[in-house]
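Quick one, tokens below. Sequence please?
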């Protein structure tokens, strides 16, 4: 759902690590992948947009399961968050130059997609704690004022995430799995743990690359050779 929408709006695409196709000349023009960025494709997507290239999506499927166990999942999400932090820091070294390259809408898009994604994960426990604290005190959750807007932002974010998940599952013929949306608040806490772990790692070990093993799930459509399962 997400990338086709960005492509239709002609906004910069934070590319994922799977099933990308590039023109070799374009890659050479923008300097190819950054070997020090642990989400090098997301960074490359931003750089392509800054050089005036447009990325879009095709109607295809990448058969790659998500990690089904906590430790591999946490390492993968930590790497993603750390790479997004690196991407934001690199491109924001010169904000005015970034603005000129992407324009106002593209600049805002990078702030929301890359910086906002990281920031939301980092502050979620604080947001959730304040909501629970106000609820325990019997305070109205959606009253006027800063506190009310705070709660509306949290509820709105969760609602948007849940709606997008349900629509995405329905489009893939997996509507029977939509019950998982009730776990969204817990999932966001897990993402926050990964984000804070990524921040610590960014300071202590910025170039550490925690590999993710693939092809392990029973539902995998394709059995990969052992040498190809790390990504």
């Amino acid at each position: 759902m997400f990338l086709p929408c960005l492509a239709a709006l002609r906004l910069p695409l934070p590319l994922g690590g799977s099933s990308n196709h590039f023109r070799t000349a374009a890659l050479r023009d923008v300097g190819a992948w950054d070997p020090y960025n642990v989400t090098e494709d997301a960074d490359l997507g931003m750089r392509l947009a800054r050089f005036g290239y447009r990325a879009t999506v095709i109607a295809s499927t990448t058969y790659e399961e998500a990690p089904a166990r906590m430790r591999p999942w946490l390492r993968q999400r930590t790497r993603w968050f750390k790479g997004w932090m690196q991407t934001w820091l690199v491109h924001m070294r010169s904000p005015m130059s970034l603005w000129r390259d992407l324009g106002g809408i593209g600049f805002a898009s990078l702030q929301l997609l890359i910086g906002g994604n990281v920031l939301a994960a980092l502050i979620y426990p604080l947001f959730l704690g304040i909501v629970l604290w106000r609820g325990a005190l019997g305070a109205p959750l959606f009253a006027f004022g800063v506190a009310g807007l705070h709660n509306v932002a949290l509820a709105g974010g969760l609602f948007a995430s849940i709606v997008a998940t349900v629509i995405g599952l329905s489009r893939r013929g997996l509507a029977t799995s939509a019950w998982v949306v009730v776990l969204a608040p817990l999932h966001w806490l897990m993402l926050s743990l990964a984000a804070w772990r990524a921040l610590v790692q960014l300071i202590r070990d910025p170039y550490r690359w925690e590999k993710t093993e693939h092809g392990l799930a029973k539902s995998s459509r394709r059995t990969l050779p052992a040498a190809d399962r790390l990504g």
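Residues 95-136 form the longest helix (42 residues). The chain is about 60% helix and 0% strand.
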